[in-house]
């Protein structure tokens, strides 16, 4: 999905390059140890909404129940498919010369029932372990966002009832 915001940012970036401003702005402009990286967010990027025992998220429920509230009526069912393509994507991040990668955890993939007593999905834990291993294998430093609006629907249904 291409948002208008992303397209405009790309146009500004290309215009910036075209006017030669980039020649004075490069990596040597930054202090040693500066971290360059890219970031993803599970709901918008992973896809695979039911694979590995993933339960529905609050956002899954909202976007399916109220598609009119989303400008392009999209939801997290069809995304960049990072869940299946992360190895290829991380190789591309490395090729871009980045040294960090930030991602968020989709808690419904690990705790589909919203609590530890509801069971931990081994497939979800294995996915994130494999992802972190692949990040490190590509020479990138992983940064994990613990909360990026991707919580189990079961929290809203069963735990946050007051």
TrEMBL record:
Keywords: Glycosidase, Hydrolase, Signal. The keyword ATP-binding does not apply. One of its GO terms (biological process) is carbohydrate metabolic process. GO terms for molecular function: beta-glucosidase activity. InterPro entries: GH, GH_1_N_CS, Glyco_hydro_1. Residues 1-23 form the signal peptide. The keyword GTP-binding does not apply. Pfam families: Glyco_hydro_1. Belongs to the glycosyl hydrolase 1 family. This is Beta-glucosidase.
